[in-house]
Amino acid sequence: MKYDLHTHTNQSDGELTPEELIFRASEAGINMLAITDHDRITFDDELAIKAKNYGIKLIPSVEISTIWNGIGLHLVGLNVLPNAKLIQLGLVSNREARHARNLLIAEKLSAEGIPDALVGAKKYAIGEIVGRTHFAQYLIETAKAKDIKRAFSQYLANGKKAFSEAKWVSLSTAITWIKDAGGLAVLAHPLRYGLKRKRLCQLLQEFKNQGGDGMEVINCNLKPDEKENLSRLCQQFNLKASCGSDFHGSHMPWYQIGRFDELPKKCQAIGDILYG
Ligand code: AMP
Ligand code: MN
Ligand code: MN
Ligand code: MN
Asked: Looking at residues 63-71, what average pLDDT do you find?
């Protein structure tokens, strides 16, 4: 069985339509797929049927932007009831926080001599979600940055000139939304937050205590020692293990659907629970 439990469509900062993503997943031999757009659940029955016709089980999912001790963390909710009230209302409030944050990013870019960046970013956003990736695409278009990585390292990444943290939901509240929707709460890409080991352990312990179910152990391009580290942490904190590419599209070619290592045998795969 091949699972990819972390992917994006053009309903957030991905490139492909949900239908195109499903087709690409089928080409990559995926049996179970989670579309995890930022702060929105991209799922409907028609889409699930389309996926099924390609032999893919599509599970309604989301990647929620959260705050833990002042640090922005991403929480994946897998197999959520797409119309559950609490999570839907919560995601609306996160999208409002995103909008307010985007105004601040645009202001900061304007102060750097880059006016009208929100209008520019919105050109790259197909759906309601406008994010830093869209700002990055605008910075490339206007030759303010050479590529997406540099747009982040020069302007948009945490602590850089145009960075502004949104008033996202707290990690603990986001967990309750996912639980209320009958889903599984999975900490996304734990090594991408720049946390020192002690801090990461503190996070995982709190996450577990608050009802967290799993953590991503396998993403694209992990080094062997990172994989080993995540595998141990997953076992140490008695969390289930998830795997996902974080595929976005050709603007982030370093993430490809299904192109990642197998989960370590010692970890309990969350996908096996969901596949049933
Ligand atoms: P936002 O939800 O608007 O804060 O944007 C977060 C998204 O920006 C992530 O999901 C990634 O897709 C993208 N991103 C964050 N950091 C980087 C980076 N250093 N290089 C490229 N993309 C990044
Ligand atoms: Mn993204
Ligand atoms: Mn993420
Ligand atoms: Mn993601």
From this structure: 98
